[in-house]
């Protein structure tokens, strides 16, 4: 078993509950962590036997383009899509941070983290 992490993927997207957020958009940071079962890639050193990082990045990018009001919805879509489209995954977690959210004061980010197979939602200050 091994862990794959794609860290600090940056996307510009239009997620948010406020109309202004959906018009102007915002910067989001996505972190994804996968625990994969043993695979032939450990022996063969062949990309065709491994979990393909580029494919995962493309899935995340596709889901980030689809507008949502809540980060929880985006997290769930990413989790479901990666889990369904990538073989050999035991667990997966995703954290999405909205940079400089409109909260009326200075705040670096607001984040949501979810995990499969058991889901957990938490917020952080970045």
Helices and strands, with pairings:
Blueprint: E1 2-13, H1 19-24, E2 26-36, H2 41-44, H3 53-65, H4 71-85, E3 89-99, E4 109-116
Helix pairs in contact: 3-4
Key words describing this protein structure:
126 residues, alpha+beta, GTP Cyclohydrolase I, domain 2, four-stranded antiparallel sheet, elongated
Describe the fold and architecture:
The chain is α+β, with helices and mostly antiparallel strands. It has one domain: GTP Cyclohydrolase I, domain 2 (2-Layer Sandwich), CATH 3.30.1130.10. The protein is built from four helices and four strands; from the N terminus they run E-H-E-H-H-H-E-E. It has a four-stranded antiparallel β-sheet with strand order 1-2-3-4. Helix 3 runs antiparallel to helix 4. It is elongated and about 55 Å long. The two termini are 29 Å apart.
Rg is 16 Å
Query: How large a portion of the residues is in β-strands, by DSSP E?
Result: 25-35%
Low-confidence stretches: 118-126
Number of helices: 4
CATH 4th-level superfamily: GTP cyclohydrolase I, C-terminal domain/NADPH-dependent 7-cyano-7-deazaguanine reductase, N-terminal domain
Profile the largest sheet.
4 strands, antiparallel
CATH class: Alpha Beta
Domain unit count:
1
The percentage helix is: 25-40%
Distance between the termini: 29 Å
Please trace the helix and strand order, writing H or E for each element: EHEHHHEE
Shape verdict = elongated
Overall structural class, as computed from helix and strand content, comes to alpha+beta
Specify the CATH architecture: 2-Layer Sandwich
Average predicted local confidence, pLDDT? 88
CATH topology: GTP Cyclohydrolase I, domain 2
Q: Which strand order do you get reading across the main beta sheet?
A: 1-2-3-4
Number of strand segments: 4
């Amino acid at each position: 078993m091994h862990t794959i992490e794609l860290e600090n993927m940056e996307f510009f997207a239009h997620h948010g509950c406020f109309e202004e957020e959906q018009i102007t958009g915002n910067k989001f940071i996505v972190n994804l962590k996968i625990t994969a079962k043993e695979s032939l890639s450990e022996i063969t050193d062949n990309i065709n036997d491994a979990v393909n990082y580029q494919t995962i990045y493309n899935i995340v990018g596709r889901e980030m383009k689809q507008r949502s009001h809540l980060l929880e919805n985006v997290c769930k879509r990413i989790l479901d899509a990666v889990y369904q489209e990538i073989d050999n995954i035991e667990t997966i977690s995703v954290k999405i941070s909205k940079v400089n959210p409109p909260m009326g004061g200075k705040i670096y980010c607001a984040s949501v983290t979810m995990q499969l197979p058991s889901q957990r939602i938490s917020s952080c200050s970045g």
